[in-house]
Input
Amino acid sequence: MFRIHRLFIKTAIVYLVLGVGLGGWLLLRKAASGEGSSHDLALVHTHLLLVGFMLMMVMGVSNWIFPRQPGVGKEARARDSLAWGNYLLLNAGLILRVLAEPLLPLPPARVTLGLSALLQVAGVLLFVRGIWRRVRAPSVVPDL
Output
């Protein structure tokens, strides 16, 4: 497992802790006051868990487990520019989302939220580009 794969997985675990922590805090606040949680914080909670944890975990494991094209050396696998770009763009977009969502409807927050969306979409597209050619039938079919 290369550094990029460990980063995806460890970052996903950090987002899991943050998402569950925020969700627990929202529930405790609701129990104490009887009022529902802020819609903006509920969206942050959801994004931390779905994009931060689930999507990052799936992407990290996929990049690690799906086979490379024959002849791709260890150095090339460790420097996988599509995986690194995917990781950086997705994280930058998610962090901007977490920061901007509670500040809506302020105009700077709206611009930041738009940038967040573009970064996350670009990160996902890099993932699709990098993984697409790796999802294929095995080159040798075992005898049954």
About this structure: The radius of gyration is 19 Å. The chain is about 75% helix and 0% strand. The CA atoms of residues 19 and 48 lie 5 Å apart.
